[in-house]
Amino acid sequence: MCGIVGYIGQKNTKEILLEGLKELEYRGYDSAGIAVLQDGDFTNYKAVGKLVNLEEKTKDFVTESFAVGIGHTRWATHGKPTELNAHPHLGESSYVVHNGIIENYASLKKELTQKGVTFLSQTDTEVIVHQFEKNLKNSPDTFEAFSKTIKELQGAYAILLVTKSEPDTIYFAKHGSPMLVGVNKENEKYFASSDTPLIGHCQKVNYFEDGDYGYVTPDETAIFSKNGTKKEPHFCELSQNKLSAQKNGFRFFMEKEIYEQREVIADTLMGRLSEDAILFDELESSLFEGIKEIKLCACGTSYHSALCASYLFERYSKIKTSVEIASEFRYRKPIMTKDTLFIVISQSGETADTLETLKMAKEAGLKTLVICNVDNSSMVRLAEASILTRAGIEKGVASTKAFATQVVVFWMLSLYLAKLTNALEKSEIAKQIALLREVPASCAVTDNMHERIKRLSKRYLHGHGFFFIGRDIFFPLALEGALKLKEISYLHAEGYPSGEMKHGPIALADPELFTIALLPQHLLYEKSKSNVEELSARDSTICAISPLEFDKADDFIPISTCRDYMLEFFEMMVVVQLLSLEISVRLGNDVDMPRNLAKSVTVE
Ligand code: M6R
Description:
The protein is α/β, with parallel strands linked by helices.
């Protein structure tokens, strides 16, 4: 959550910081701020709301010579989204930006307040800069004061601090929240909480590890590990492809990402399919030795794809599978046995709760695998093995193409395991692989489909709620459809197994209750149809998504006639994504940056 940038160099510091924050704005956009130290003096600007407000405020601020600067875009945790709570936070002669949560901030704040320090904000972050300045008063050395401060903090953080006592230096610390530093031939130094702001500026980057802290000057990158030993920076090449991060003529990133699913799924499949086997070069077969069951753990949309995986693993690989919501799992003292393969799923690879469950599994000695979209992310670096989903940068806060590629990876993995466990005949695996090859085409958005959904969307802008219903693997798709709608339309929506309606939820049925019914031809069609008929008989307004015309529906969105339920799954996935998008557009909402949300949830 939140985005952090930092810069040391001769170029236009203000522009560099603002451009970097623009790249990270999807991570939080309650408020933003920058602090620049130039010729011995600080200049600081903050603004509530989106970054344009900060751009407007800083339009007359010029930075032309050597400067050191830090910036932040915020997603509020402690304290309301106000200017006073926006970062950077000021001490007497230092500024700090922080991503994460300082868990012991209340006790530190109490001690500092008793010593006469005045706090301006309600944030946990402000204690960092005051604690540092308190330590600096008792120490001749700035880095010593910073190191002491870091050791006094508990919680998760990525921190940048600048101070007048060392005007060419940025101090940093990372524990639990992502951060990297980049360098270039012009001897500039760039910091950020993800690599996108550095693309085009740096060729080489060092991803900090948990516990790393240190300082960076124009001539030195000094990194210390948790135990205080100095370590060599580990610089690696930064990919320079930024094209995929632009809108390509679509109205919204989310729309572009829905349309892109066809290509990214083709990328996800590339090199991984042979006639009758799935090839995951990144996996050692030893990862599965002695494994009797699989546990999947994730949050949000990734949790829904994990639920899809559980149907596929049990059906095709014949391996007992359970799925957990990461924020629940981490605190319920779960039983973890070494014959369980622990799989975490995350688009970002940084979600705090999911990351924590991965650490728990590792500590318990389980074999671990991550399905992730971001190479070098914290989870990829931590897990024993990883499969990358190859969805490309996903900018819309509402996840679409990441979900699609996750489900594709799980389908492939279920067949890979089926081969290892001899759970499926060779011919059946070959049949499934042939189906997998058809998925990109199933995800293509046709003009007809999009136009029809656009037109229908105007009938679904009110009412007292939506039920998305489906059976089997279409149940997690129903959950995902409901989540998409909630996130960007702010309308109340729930996903339900179709067969569960009569056990309570059907009491809500009336014409103002909208049911989005997923009716695949190739999986439990008759049973699902009866469930929808029950709702129709109680006058719920029904929108059926199916290849088969359904006369009890008020609205009907046809999908093409496919030869397997999984192909129907992907077509329906596109339909529910577009439906949410068009409803949100008609309601005038910010599709890509919906209220109260952030792209990467690196706080618990
Ligand atoms: O990066 P992750 O996949 O770990 O993120 C998990 C959730 O925060 C994420 O899927 C969230 O639910 C999205 N906003 C869904 O659109």
